[in-house]
Design brief:
heterodimer; A: 263 residues; alpha/beta; Rossmann fold; 9-stranded mixed β-sheet; two-stranded antiparallel sheet; 13 strands; 28% helix; B: 321 residues; 5-stranded parallel β-sheet; 27% helix; 29% strand; globular; binds flavin-adenine dinucleotide
């Protein structure tokens, strides 16, 4: 099975204090620590496990800049066979639909049976997988927490539905799945693993390699435009409730009631 | 020429989801400010009766798509039908609840119709007759304002953020023709536990437990949640330990919740957990470490052993009833 996994390089929210750029419409990205989007590690792990069982190749792809190569190498150290970097000045300012358009062009260049994305990335939209599937007219399942492969015509996937219930669906291949965290345990990548893949060739493709008209992706095509960013006030911290347990609870209930928090 | 505001309303077990009514209320306000009408869309097996209720939230027209294959969570079928409805009615904007279904449907529709979409909006307003949205990025560390451009603009709204307000709409019900199109996702098995469990993202009250629970016995939290009429959530540590299902996880890699009251019990308050609950109206933290990070984001803090405090709160709240 030929599997393409879409991965994104994202600022590490735990490591970074965010500041804004001078225009106030993006992060000041100069000194940020980056990592692979957490969900994408689960998608790559799932792909590797499928290929371990039924054979084939795992290719990881990202839309980004030169530095995004590092996330491809990390996923290759996990066990992905190939990496592809999609990078072009024309891609800058792409919205989710722009990213999906670029990924679609790569899918059509290849011969993939299965395309995996993470359920969500740093911008929290959780939409690129669904958009990609709709553009390709491929079957799609979101928030997948179980994958069963038998045969190469179809795939069975589990997902959580409303109220914590679970359902299984069958999708014809090729298809797109967005993978939920917790589906597996992504393997650990050590320095040695990264070193082993340090020399592997990673092709870089731009708009013309993908046959994309620059006007259909990037800033010009984006239908969602950033206006401004701000850092929300995290609040003044808590009011500490003191006294005996009884007193504390009496105070608590009174306060919650006065804030309308208790019916 | 695109006109009016459309809201896609979701039924679950025969009643409308709270977030759908929130979306209608917001949609009504937007429609009023444009001086245009509010159209609701309801898809499912037999929905024309319950759909009538939406007049109460200001729907002027209620488009009903009925087919057994539209019932429940059927994004593929619903996508095909919804695209037809949008093409037919040409609304200026379409709102969805940011539920699993709403997020998936809106993303698919956005790609199919090549229109802009903002997901998980915390605020929506109109400038130059176009939608402007506020949404969070990077696990809540940033709030962004985005313009949605083009003749049709899509947005999903985060549950429990907008008020539900009743209004009077003409409520004309119009049944539309259903063409399911190509269906390429087949349901083969459904494990539905008929439970009275309240969906975490819809709950008004959430009691969450972390690593301090020290095992799968969450009964003291279940009792408090049941007394409040709410749901139980968990930190990732509690989920990773196997004490709670992944579907209960609150945070960056779990669910984003915004209840009236969030009680964090034995949760340290890591950024990734905060990302999932910081927009709750009132946050109470119970932690035996006075320096716990969670106290920075909470409104009220109790420095004590949760195993003593939680049952005592439950008893007091029972007395209120
Ligand atoms: C400098 C800059 C300018 C930008 N300008 C705009 C703008 O003007 N308007 C706007 O709407 N957005 C803009 N963006 C945001 C950007 O387009 C987002 O990456 C996109 O919207 C998808 O992000 P998400 O986190 O919401 O993805 P989600 O939909 O949450 O991601 C789900 C999955 O999709 C896949 N995926 C997502 N992104 C990529 C990627 N880059 N490469 C490979 N796979 C991917 C991954 O598998 C991921 O797990 C900008 C970003 C940057 C860095
Ligand atoms: C990419 C990424 C994504 C993540 N996503 C999420 C996510 O979605 N959700 C999430 O929750 N985490 C997430 N995490 C993990 C997060 O960083 C923390 O590790 C996790 O939230 C900690 O869980 P905890 O608070 O239960 O455990 P701990 O940090 O171990 O905290 C336990 C707390 O309980 C207190 N305590 C102990 N005994 C008692 C007692 N008897 N009474 C009262 N208090 C007591 C302790 O003082 C301590 O503060 C993510 C991490 C990463 C790297």
């Amino acid at each position: 099975m030929e599997i393409l996994v879409c991965v994104k390089r994202v600022p590490d929210t735990a490591e970074n204090e965010f500041e804004l750029n001078s225009a106030g419409n993006d992060l000041d990205r100069d000194d940020l620590v980056y990592s692979v989007n957490e969900w994408d590690n689960y998608a790559v792990e799932e792909a590797i496990q499928i290929v371990d069982n039924v054979g084939g190749n795992v290719t990881v792809v990202t839309v980004g800049d030169d530095e995004s190569e590092e996330v491809l190498r990390r996923e290759m150290a996990m066990g992905a066979n190939n990496g592809i970097l999609l990078s072009d000045d024309a891609f800058e300012g792409a919205d989710g639909k722009g990213i999906a358009t670029i990924l679609k062009a790569e899918v059509e260049k290849g011969n993939y049976d299965l395309i995996l994305t993470g359920a969500q990335a740093d911008e929290g939209a959780g939409q690129v997988g669904g958009m990609l599937a709709a553009m390709l007219d491929y079957p799609y399942a979101s928030l997948v927490n179980k994958v069963e492969v038998d045969g190469d015509a179809a795939i069975k996937v589990g997902r959580e539905i409303e109220g914590g219930n679970q359902e299984m669906n069958e999708l014809d291949l090729p298809c797109v799945l967005s993978i939920q965290t917790g589906i597996n345990e992504p393997r650990y990548v050590g320095i040695r693993g990264i070193r082993k893949v340090a020399k592997l060739e990673i092709p870089v493709k731009g708009a013309s390699d993908l046959g994309l008209d620059a006007a259909t992706v990037g800033d010009a095509a984006a239908k969602v435009k950033r206006v401004d960013y701000f850092v929300p006030d995290m609040g003044d911290g808590a009011e500490m409730l003191d006294g005996s347990t009884d007193e504390i609870i009496a105070q608590l209930i009174e306060r919650i009631k006065s804030k309308g928090g208790l019916a | 020429m695109a006109q009016g505001v459309m809201v896609v309303a979701e039924l679950f077990n025969g009643s409308f989801k709270k977030v759908s009514l929130e979306a209608l209320s917001k949609g009504k306000a937007l429609a009023d400010s444009l001086g245009e009408s509010l159209v609701a869309v309801v898809m499912g097996a037999a929905v024309s009766e319950p759909a009538k209720e939406l007049a109460k939230y200001g729907a002027d027209l209620i488009v009903v798509a009925q087919d057994a294959d539209l019932e429940g969570y059927r994004p593929c079928q619903q996508h095909n039908v919804l695209v037809d409805i949008i093409n037919d009615k040409a609304p200026r904007m379409v709102l969805f609840g940011a539920t699993r279904q709403g997020k998936e449907l809106s993303a698919n529709v956005s790609a199919t119709l090549d229109v802009g979409l903002a997901q998980e909006c915390l605020d929506l307003f109109i400038e130059d007759q176009k939608l402007v949205a506020k949404r969070t990025l990077f696990g809540g560390k940033i709030i962004a304002t985005v313009d949605i451009e083009g003749d049709t603009q899509l947005a999903t709204i985060r549950p429990n953020v907008f008020e539900i307000t009743e209004a009077t709409g003409a409520g004309v019900v119009e049944e539309c023709a259903v063409n399911l199109g190509t269906v390429n996702v087949t349901l083969i098995e459904e494990k539905v536990e008929v439970s009275s469990k309240i969906e975490l993202t819809e709950a008004d009250y959430i009691v969450s437990g972390g690593r301090a629970m020290d095992g799968p016995d969450f009964s003291i939290l279940e009792n408090l949640a049941a007394t409040l009429g709410g749901a139980v959530g968990a930190s990732r540590n509690a989920v990773d330990a196997g004490w709670r299902p992944q579907t209960d996880q609150v945070g960056q890699t779990g669910k984003v919740v915004s209840p009236k009251l969030y009680i964090a019990c034995g949760i340290s308050g890591a950024m990734q957990h905060i990302a999932g609950m910081s927009t709750s109206d009132v946050i109470v933290a119970i932690n035996n470490d006075p320096d716990a990070l969670i106290f920075k984001t909470s409104d009220y803090s109790i420095v004590d052993d949760l195993f003593d405090v939680v049952p005592a709160i439950t008893e007091e709240i029972k007395k209120l009833a």
